[in-house]
Amino acid sequence: MENRTIDNKKLSGINALLSVLVVFLHSENLHAYTMPEGTFSSFVKSFEWFFSENLCLMAVPAFFMISGSLFYRDFDISLYPKKLKSRFFSLIVPFFAWNLFRYLLFYILGVTGFAKGVMGARPLEFNLKSIISSVVFYKSNLGFWFIYQLILYAILSPVIRLLVKNKWVGLLSIFGMIVIYSSDIFGNFLMVTMNKRFILLDSFVYYLIGAYVGTHGFWLLSKKSNTIKYLSIAGLLSGQALHYIYLHTCLLWVYVLWLAVSAISLWYFYDYIKPAKWLTAISSITFFVYAGHGTILEFLQLLGAYTLPDSPIIALITYITFPVVTLMVLLVLSKLYKRYTPRLWKILNGGR
Questions:
Q1: In angstroms, rounded to a whole number, what is the distance separating the alpha carbons of residues 264 and 64?
Q2: 263, exposed or middle or buried, with CB in 10 Å at 0-12, 13-18, 19+?
Q3: For 9, 62, 276, 337, which has the most beta carbons within 10 A of its beta carbon?
Q4: Quick check: pTM over 0.85?
């Protein structure tokens, strides 16, 4: 019988690594500092670009692939109600809770006159339209587009099951989605007209790949060998080559391939690195890190903009240190929530 288990220690570890990458992805700060012509300014821009716009980006497709494979490793239609109930507590409840928190935060900042300083935000109105826009459609919490997509995929799981149930139909579905996304037939319509309120096709491709693996080859996630080790390294290098091609061609299918190959390769390469102790420390609070890092990081960036000199060296220092401080604050907060408000903590950490 096919192995449907997974190394939970590895899963927790790689989720922690991906969470850290997401924090650094959002710490890019070049827009907030003056970058005069010069060698050091060029270095700072290249450094931040390489990490935030290249390496860290693989975290997003990796999360989608992992989510898809875990959801579909044991899925059939009879489990649909059970799966929805599980996602209600792990996705929907924290989604609304965090969105409500962000809405109230921005509303208070607006009332007190500070809203313009936080990500250039305009003061929020206190009415039904504003509440729905913020709490349901994450207007005040834009980073939660990821959770919103996962909720949609859970609701549509019977349809996704039909797409991947048969091996050949599944491969054709993945290929078809890549073609549709690459031709931009629906891309602009969904992004502009729907304002990210429906499925984002590139994210759906990654999730669909995960669903396909969960359905037909979940055992592949546990494979280890020297050959796989070298293939994972080759995959990461190939990902960089594809990234270079994408930058010079802007071909969307190359973009999808770059991130998919990089994310898959990272999964296997993780087996051959030794996680740092601090990474292990956040492995149990990855949802909390994802959900809470934006607020703390925005505050630190706002504080830095008002108190620190405007220079490339400050941009580099804050780019590196602010994510570290953010993670430290989240670790402390997680311990306080666990100790004093365990029920609230369970909601804030997605029931984990």
A1: 11
A2: buried
A3: 62
A4: yes
